[in-house]
Amino acid sequence: MSLEFVSLETIQFIAHKYGYLAVFLGIALENAGIPLPGETITLVGGFLAGSGELMYWYVLGCAIMGAIFGDSCGYWIGKYGGWPFMLRLGKIFRIQETKLMDVKNQFSKNAAKAVFFGRFVTLLRIFAGPLAGIAQMPYWKFLLCNFAGATIWALTMVSLSFFVGQVVPLEKLVSWVAQFGIVALTLVFAWILIPISLESLKKGNQNTGL
Known about the structure:
The protein is an all-alpha fold and 210 residues long. The chain has one domain (8-207). Helices cover 80% and strands 0% of the residues. The protein has helices spanning 8-18, 20-31, 38-50, 56-92, 97-109, 111-117, 124-134, 139-163, 170-207. It is elongated, with a radius of gyration of 19 Å. 39% of the residues are buried.
């Protein structure tokens, strides 16, 4: 997910000026939990590689390393400070701790899938690392899923813009990828919230003797 006030023209300017460093830092900072347009920067990097301004393999390597490094930072942030922060947010927005625990437990059950597939999902790409830390997912397991997910995601994004970007305008390609991420986010919300709602309804029926 990119910040709305960062235009595609600005991202292209940054990528032109800083090249591989822009790709690495863009996705690293986004995966660490900062809502920067890392995915768009990666797409622009692949597009520039397709036009011969950058090297494909260098862009791919920077995207993979940036994703792994950023998500690992997010993991440790979540592990050592994420849960108290969530509890404080819960108090501010009047969300019961039991509800937060339900979300935490639901994520814990599917943490490996969330870390691996989360890179293709708007917002989850930003929060998967911190949430895995909050859920106390073993780091070795997180690192394995993180590496696999980062490699598949970077290969997909860089290759897509490298090849398809030569026949489809970059603006349209970025829009398609963003729309896919939003649809995926909607499905993830349904995947997490529906079981929680059904469980709450079941408990309510048991308490009322139904």
